[in-house]
Amino acid sequence: MAATRELAPIGQITVAQARSEFLRLIRVPAFSVPSIIFPIMFYALFGLPFAHEMVNGVSIAVYALASFGAYSVINVAMFSFGITVANDRGEKTTVLMRATPLPPIAYLGGKAIATLAFAAIAVGALLAFGAIAGGIHLAAIAWLTLGVRLLAGVFPFITLGFAVGYLAGPTSAVAILQMISLPMSFASGLFIPIGVLPAWIRTIAIYLPAYHFGVLARSTLAPPTEPLATTLAWLAGYTVVFLFVAIRAYYREETKTFG
Predict the structure, then answer these.
(1) What average pLDDT does the structure give for the chain?
(2) Which of 12, 62, 104, 195 lies 20 to 30 angstroms, CA to CA, from 41?
(3) CB of 60 closer than 8 Å to CB of 54
(4) What is the CA radius of gyration of the chain?
(5) Can you spell out the DSSP letters for 56-101?
(6) What is the pLDDT, as a whole number, of residue 144?
(7) Which residues neighbour 61 within 8 Å (Cβ) at sequence distance 6 or greater?
(8) How much is the pLDDT for 255?
């Protein structure tokens, strides 16, 4: 008769897993340094030189701050989930976990909490740079709303990273994530205003999750280009679709490994 695995209390083990995952992310300079520095660097290159120009009645410095905040969260969410899940599968850590008291939901919940914590650090660093170097002055409620919206929009990209982590191998996951993240962010108007992109890219952009995430962030500081309910519906829809793909991939591997 097969032995029954005793699982740890969900709350306590999830907190412990979140702490472990956060330390894992912060201790890898190849991940932690670019995740914090690159959005600031892009903002300095593409936002600050045009700070006194306007787009849709908003200074480009403000427009770019919200856009690169979204880019920062997208990168942290996709790469933290995609790469660590792919590596855990490649190193058979996920198989080893089956012999521990760690429930699968605590494994994923810990990763999600760690991703949110790291994204908060990256966004905080970017917003502080925008306030100091860009001279952006907003009301406290506007700063808070922008930060909350940036973190609230993380879920489609967490589930996308989860799906890639279970569909790709550890050596190919990084390349696949890069091929998704950078073109999607560019085509969604996160690097330059979408109005100056070619018409065919603008046609595609409205179907991309990063486009609606950018709208969610920028609508804190500028007139929205679509109703908030529409933006949230798109992001929720993408979260459900990517989560469905990830769960299918997860159970496919479970069946392949354990029968």
Answers:
(1) 90
(2) 195
(3) yes
(4) 19
(5) TTEEHHHHHHHHHHHHHHHHHHHHHHHHHHHHHHHTTHHHHHTTSS
(6) 95
(7) 47, 48, 50, 51, 130, 134, 135, 136
(8) 84
Residue 60 backbone class (left: φ over 0; alpha: ψ -120 to 50; beta: rest):
alpha
Reported as a single tens digit per residue, the pLDDT across 51-63 is 777 776 778 888 8
H or E element: which one contains 54?
strand 54-55
DSSP secondary-structure letter at 28? -
3-state secondary structure of 55: strand
Find out whether 155 and 75 touch, Cβ atoms under 8 Å.
no
Burial class for 235, CB neighbours closer than 10 Å (0-12, 13-18, 19+): buried
* Joined tokens for residue 224: 């929205």
* 229, HSE (Cβ side, Cα atoms, 13 Å): 0
Q: Is the pLDDT of residue 2 over 60?
A: no
Q: Rounded to 5 degrees, what are φ and ψ at 169?
A: -80, 170
